[in-house]
Specification:
By secondary structure, the chain is mainly α. The protein has 7 helices and no strands. It comes from Macrococcus caseolyticus (strain JCSC5402).
């Protein structure tokens, strides 16, 4: 459940309560119209607020964030959204396959990080540097590089600067890859624990299956020797 769903849930429950309260007030108590309206409004608010706050509290508890932290993350996502759109607009400036590859990889990394934080706001604090610096640096440098690379009559110094910018973009791309790994760090740790548990269980199962076979092999020769010895005594 998302945080905004708490408002919808509160309204769904509060509206019928307000209508029923208004009908009872108008037909039984027969107050004046403005009093009935106030009663309906009051019943709506008294129903809406507890339901909304309870649902919101449950959601925030599930994702492990306080209300202030959640609002802070939402604010940062709102600031980052236009920058993600600006990265998408860079496709229009591409003039070569190498540029297309770079723009595509950078866009993919940035969008994956952004969308994952949207789905799991608590992960924001694993990649806060992405939102505060890495995204800005990437957007600004990529924009300038693609713009200047199309300009004619470049000097040798200009070309050297463009080459340096291209190398810097490669570094920024690796930085975004590191951000993505940091984003999924907890998931990898969880998977590692599950793998270890599964390996331990499999090892125990194999050991328990081999144990009866070992015991059977040990008993078989003893039974054979006892039978031979018994037959010799009878003779």
């Amino acid at each position: 459940m998302k945080y905004n769903t708490s408002y919808i849930l509160g309204a769904i429950l509060a509206i019928p309560v307000a209508i029923i309260t208004g009908i009872i007030s108008m037909n039984i108590f027969q107050f004046e119209m403005w009093i009935d309206t106030l009663i309906m409004l009051g019943s709506y608010i008294m129903t809406f607020l507890p339901v909304q706050q309870k649902a919101a509290h449950t959601y925030l508890k599930d994702i492990g964030l306080s209300k202030n932290d959640y609002k802070y993350v939402k604010k940062q996502l709102k600031i980052a959204a236009p920058k993600i759109k600006h990265l998408l607009a860079q496709y229009k400036k591409v003039r070569s396959l190498s540029e297309l590859k770079n723009v595509n990889e950078i866009n993919k990394l940035a969008r994956v990080i952004f969308k994952n934080v949207q789905k799991a706001p608590s992960k924001f604090f694993n990649v806060d540097s992405f939102f505060f610096s890495h995204l800005d640096n990437t957007v600004n440098l990529l924009n300038e590089y693609l713009y200047l690379s199309r300009m004619p009559h470049k000097t040798k110094e200009d070309q050297q600067l463009l080459n340096h910018a291209k190398l810097t973009l490669d570094e920024l791309k690796r930085t975004l890859q590191a951000d993505l790994r940091a984003l999924n760090k907890e998931n990898y740790e969880t998977m590692r624990v599950e793998i270890n548990l599964a390996d331990n269980y499999t090892t125990k199962q194999l050991f328990s299956q081999k144990q009866p076979q070992i015991e059977h092999k040990e008993k078989a020769p003893i039974q054979f020797k006892n039978r031979v010895h018994h037959e010799e005594e009878r003779k």
